[in-house]
Design goal:
Layout: E1 6-7, H1 31-55, H2 58-84, H3 99-128, H4 136-162, H5 170-176, H6 181-209, H7 213-242, H8 248-259, E2 266-276, E3 279-287, H9 294-311, E4 317-323, H10 335-343, H11 348-358
Parallel strand pairs: 3-4
Antiparallel strand pairs: 1-4, 2-3
């Protein structure tokens, strides 16, 4: 007979853990990097447009539009952060945390449409119909200044990321981060610096060879680069929008918290999902002793929820279903069962403790 799930949310206000605490690595970070990137890109965009008006460089025009698109993207990321803080309603009972993922996905669309397509079109047009590049020295000076400003923005993003990524490599950090702002700004800043190098190379080669098609080639290279960055960002944000589970270390902390009390025999299966960077949903089926009363089971579940929130403060939504554990019924192919088994500490002490709770038979 299936037992009804006993569900409790506890208080509506849940503390957010420190940046390096379990379950909140990097989730509250990123605002400083976004603001720094916005300030840098606005100044760079104005400078590049002025330089384009003087030189007529296709690479500079592509980079001007790139910086303008990046500025719009930072505004979108800030809007997403603001809207995600709205209180939950009857229509959206899990809150609005996923708005941050939605706006970050829009950022990927903007990079592709405004940045990649425009730069690619401008580059192809300049290759097919070469124009006259005037005042190349102005273009080179402006590009050098822009590289300095972009380096400042990237340094800020790297500094904030280093506070939260721990020992993870950059690829793993971008792939695993649950807060979208830092990965988005990092990708944008790296693409901006690479794009400036392409533009610098295009202008320099056009000046040295007196062949303005190199300027168009620089713009085309920028378009290809931005298309790649947009694709990477879109894939990552799609995964977060669909719903990603907590990281293995967080799931291990949840299982350890549940099983650390005498009232719970073991976690039978575990499902987690990020409703937002700072809100985690936890759904678990827990094994209880077969002779426990309803009151003792409810009391045990309340205690388990308190332990989960103490270990992983972003676990705002906790759904625990009591059941009697039977090893023969466990489906090893079920991802939820695999998650619980993977997260469970495999120590002799833990195995002995579980055996003592179950008793003979």
């Amino acid at each position: 007979m299936t037992r009804p799930a006993i569900r409790r949310r506890g208080t509506s206000e849940v503390a957010i853990s420190e940046p390096d605490g379990p379950g909140n690595r990097g989730h509250g970070q990123g605002a400083g990097a976004v603001v720094a990137a916005l300030a840098a890109n606005l100044g760079i965009a104005v400078t590049k447009f002025v330089a384009f008006a003087i030189t007529g460089s296709a690479s500079l025009l592509a980079e001007s539009v790139h910086s303008l698109a990046d500025s719009a993207n930072q505004v979108l990321l800030l809007v997403g952060r603001s809207r995600a803080r709205r209180a939950e309603t009857e229509e959206h009972q899990f809150g609005y945390g996923q708005e941050r993922y939605f706006y970050a996905f829009i950022v990927a669309v903007v990079i592709f449409v405004v940045g990649a397509l425009f730069s690619g079109y401008e580059g192809i047009d300049r290759i097919l119909h070469p124009g006259k590049l005037t005042s190349p020295v102005v273009a080179l000076v402006v590009l050098a200044i822009a590289m300095g400003l972009e380096s400042f923005s990237l340094r800020t993003a790297v500094s904030e990321s280093n506070r939260t990524r721990g020992r993870a490599g950059w690829h793993s950090f971008i792939r695993r981060a649950k807060a979208p702002e830092l990965p988005a700004v990092l990708l944008e800043d790296v693409a901006a610096l690479a794009g400036l190098l392409f533009a610098l190379a295009g202008v320099a080669l056009a000046t040295v060879t007196h062949d303005d098609r190199w300027d168009g080639a620089g713009s085309l290279a920028i378009g290809v680069l931005l298309a790649f960055v947009a694709g990477v960002l879109a894939v990552e944000m799609k995964s977060l929008l669909i719903g990603e589970s907590a990281q293995p270390g967080v799931e291990a902390a949840i299982v350890a918290a549940i099983e650390s009390g005498p009232e719970i025999e073991r976690v039978i299966h575990l499902r987690t999902m990020h409703i937002g960077p700072e809100t985690l949903l936890v759904a678990a089926k827990i094994g209880v002793l077969h002779d426990e009363t309803a009151v003792s089971i409810a009391t045990g579940i309340d205690a388990a929820e308190r332990r989960i929130r103490a270990a992983v403060p972003i676990a705002e939504l906790i759904f625990l279903e009591p059941d009697i554990y039977q090893a023969g019924r466990a489906d090893a192919t079920d991802p939820a069962i695999r998650a619980a088994r993977r997260a469970r500490p495999r120590s002799r002490r833990g195995v002995a403790r579980i055996a003592r709770r179950r008793g003979p038979g």
